[in-house]
Amino acid sequence: MRVTGLGHAGLFIETRGGSVLCDPWVHPAFFGSWFPFPDNRGLDWQKFGTADYLYVSHRHRDHFDPKLLTQVVPTDITVLLPEYPTDDLESDLRALGYNNILYTKAGEVIERNGLRIMVTPMRAPSD
Predict the structure, then answer these.
(1) Model pTM?
(2) Can you give the CATH number for the domain in which 86 is found?
């Protein structure tokens, strides 16, 4: 397994069974007051966009970058979506064209094509 840090909470996880792009963020957020440090615009985002799976932990714009997603992540990617108290994140992803959603349950292992995945989501009333 290889884990590449993409800045802030972003990760690109590569295994023999597949790859996962987590919380990719490049563009300024919160009215331009937040931005990735160190600057991660020079990373090979086209490569990271070829991941087998996309995981966005929550809707905060320093974890969910719609502009970056539409630029580098194909809409047919499998999106890992945990059980959340609201469907806001799912609605946001679907609005961008991401409809290939794999629903996950907290603490349960999913096995697909030799890749074992367990998602433990962050849950908060505002997310």
Answers:
(1) 0.90
(2) 3.60.15.10
